Amino acid sequence: MAPLRKNSSMFHSLMGFARAMPRKSVYEVIKLVYRVTAATGLYEAIKSAGTGEYTPYYPYGYATYSPWFQSPFQNIYRKIRSRSLVSEDRGYIINRLCLHSLRLEGDFAECGVYKGGSAFLIASTIKQYIDKGRSLHLFDTFTGMPDTAVKERDGHTKGDIGDTSLEEVNEYLKGFSFIEFHPGFIPDTFKEVTSKQFCFVHIDVDIYQSTLDCYRFFYDRVVPGGILLCDDYGFPTYKNAAKAAVDQFFSNKPEAPIVLPTGQCLVIKL
């Protein structure tokens, strides 16, 4: 498949067509295209569209540098692709922010582990640099969504995303001796780390109450310059869930949440 270059007539035609469509229709088209490309194997070809490592950036009609599709990041991402719902661009953000956080005091944490893919990414990123005595703490039920999930608000019900287990994830991550598991319900399991400080917290729990509980606990325990990263903020499904929780929590805080094109929301602790 020939690259779709940013100065080609087809590229500009597609971008013009997309701009003219209602945003809701664009979203439905994107979902359809994703399903078709995933099913037909066109995904890899579409990733290479643009000019080499540069890919089209909707809806502006130009291409931008996309290091998440290149080595060395792809060398890590290939190892987690089948065990994570996190896309390449979001994974790259996690990778970069972990490297930033290594220069700070405190432990790392992830809330919402699923099959361990993003935890593997975090652990791989920090393994060769992390100081002895520092840990990566993983919080999850490992049985799916808790009973606080409300379908109309959160897009999930109890037990959703439950095709995982503590034993399976523990086996997958056994190469990282600095990982500590905290299975159970958030916020109950937070009591095990009340005395800790953190430099990086990845929050990927989707639903409103669990997201709010994460920020309530970790906010005061993240060191200045540390990172709070919410995975689900920008996706329509979680408008009244993760997004609502973040907006509510930071409505009276000095930090300004930074919404990323990836769908993530970044907070740098002051």
Structure commentary:
The chain has 270 residues and is of the alpha/beta class. The chain has 2 domains: 9-65, no CATH class; 73-268, Vaccinia Virus protein VP39 (Rossmann fold, 3-Layer(aba) Sandwich), CATH 3.40.50. It contains 10 helices and 9 strands. The strands form 2 sheets. A 7-stranded mixed beta sheet has the order 5-4-3-6-7-9-8, with helices on both faces. It has a two-stranded antiparallel ribbon with strand order 1-2. Mean pLDDT is 87; it is low at 1-8.
Summarize this structure briefly.
The chain is built from 10 helices and 9 strands.
Protein traits:
9 strands, Rossmann fold, globular, 2 domains, disordered N terminus, 36% helix, alpha/beta
Strand content: 15-25%
Radius of gyration: 19 Å
Largest sheet at a glance? 7 strands, mixed
Oligomer: single chain
SSE-based structural type = alpha/beta
CATH topology of the largest domain: Rossmann fold
Biggest sheet strand line-up: 5-4-3-6-7-9-8
CATH architecture of the largest domain: 3-Layer(aba) Sandwich
Which parts are unreliable, with pLDDT below 50 for 5 consecutive residues or more? 1-8
Helix content: 25-40%
Overall mean pLDDT stands at: 87
Order of helices and strands: HHHEEHHEHEHHEEHEHEE
In CATH, what is the class of the largest domain?
Alpha Beta
**Assigned CATH superfamily of the largest domain:** Vaccinia Virus protein VP39
